[in-house]
Amino acid sequence: MNRPIRSNLTAVLAGVLAALVAAFLLAGCGSHPAASTTTPARPAAPAASASPAEPDTAAGAVAAAQRIFELYAAQQWSAVYTYVTPSARSQVSETVFAGAHEQCTTNTTGLSYTTSDPVLTGTTAVVTESLAGVAGALGSEAVTLDYVSGQWLWQPSPTDLAEYRSTVAATVAVWKAAGQCS
User: Fold this and answer.
1) CA angle at residue 101 from 103 to 43, to 5 degrees?
2) DSSP label at 153?
3) Which fold has domain 6-32+55-177?
């Protein structure tokens, strides 16, 4: 998720982006509600541990994943980091995570996401995430969440974790070399 569905879609999105912008603009001219195609407002970061536990259900996992992707779409990188599992946070610092995302934008930056198709096994859920609206036809990605201390948290894949390096500059260099950001 560190750059959701970017590796497979960056090249396609470069050509389709103009059509998406036109579709979004036209959607605003008709009777369709704009809420599903606009970047969400900046959601709040997760509450302190005093907040009630999230349901440990498939629906709870989908709701948590959607909240994480709303933060991602709003480019709230430090807030996204608070939803990363402790095991992943022990491997990637918030400074590198947030700093790399701040310096590395893609054609999908700022677009909304949808989550669906939860599969729950014990305390692990796998949900499908894709771009919202017309862009959703371009593809999707499975995202893993773990239920930890009453909260669903994102568990980056080993591939995602391997892309982060010890510094922001090194991480951005990896992403640029792979054509995953500008």
Assistant:
1) 125
2) E
3) Nuclear Transport Factor 2; Chain: A, (3.10.450)
Cross-strand partners of 130: 114, 140
C-alpha span between 178 and 13 (Å, rounded): 15
- Give the per-residue SS3 of 101-147: HHHCCCCCCCCCEEEEEEEEECCEEEEEEEECHHHHHHCEEEEEEEE
What average pLDDT score do residues 107-114 get? 73
One-letter identity of residue 78: S
pTM of the model: 0.69
Q: Where are the domains of the chain?
A: 6-32+55-177
Distance CA 118, CA 101 (A): 27
Of the candidate ranges 5-19, 33-47, 73-87, 129-143, the one whose mean pLDDT is the lowest:
5-19
